[in-house]
């Protein structure tokens, strides 16, 4: 029967009709059942990440400010619970414009947020940069600030998300120069929750 079902699914992909026996044909109803069932519910976040549940969902970015260039950024972010709720995964796309408003490029990025021991960590990558956030200060249900490790000769990065309304999220990314000093903003903006 398993071979017949495998053959059935293989044939159905090409024809929409599944044949288990040479004289028995029936319409493939499995896709219809999946459509009727609706999307699978995402796994809830595990307790160590539950304070970050306010991030889960799809967000649109307005015109953020890019401090170094005077330009702006727009884009989207999606936060999803992954690995049975043990990881919060952020996927983004950002488009950049110069100070005159002309497009100057864009990039995709991901960030994996996870508990390790008694601390929240995160790993960020955009294809050119990697940032290892070694700590997070969480105001459960409202805000989180990630901080990278202080290493000789390397800047320290901070990334903050603060829920400022039921559907509004403020974002701030800052960098402190090697050897100390106050963090200076690199990019700030606001995102709106999408349905």
Summarize it.
This protein has helices at about 1-15, 30-35, and strands at about 15-20, 25, 55-65, 70-80, 85-95, 105-115, 120-125, 130-140, 145-150, 155-165, 170-175, 185-195. The chain is mainly β and about 200 residues long. It has 2 domains: about 1-35, no CATH class; about 45-195, Calycin beta-barrel core domain (Lipocalin, Beta Barrel), CATH 2.40.128.20.
Task: Give me the number of helical elements.
Answer: 2
Q: How does the overall form come out from the CA principal axes?
A: globular
Overall domain count: 2
The CATH topology annotation of the largest domain reads as Lipocalin
Strand content: over 45%
Strand order of the largest sheet: 3-4-5-6-7-8-9-10-11-12
Strand element count: 12
Helix content: 10-25%
Separation of the first and last Cα atoms:
42 Å
Query: CATH H level of the largest domain: which superfamily?
Result: Calycin beta-barrel core domain
| CATH architectural group of the largest domain | Beta Barrel
Over the alpha carbons, how many angstroms does the gyration radius reach? 23 Å
Structural class: mainly beta
Largest sheet: 10 strands, antiparallel, barrel
Main CATH class of the largest domain: Mainly Beta
Uncertain stretches: 1-41
Mean pLDDT: 81
- Reading the helices and strands in chain order gives HEEHEEEEEEEEEE
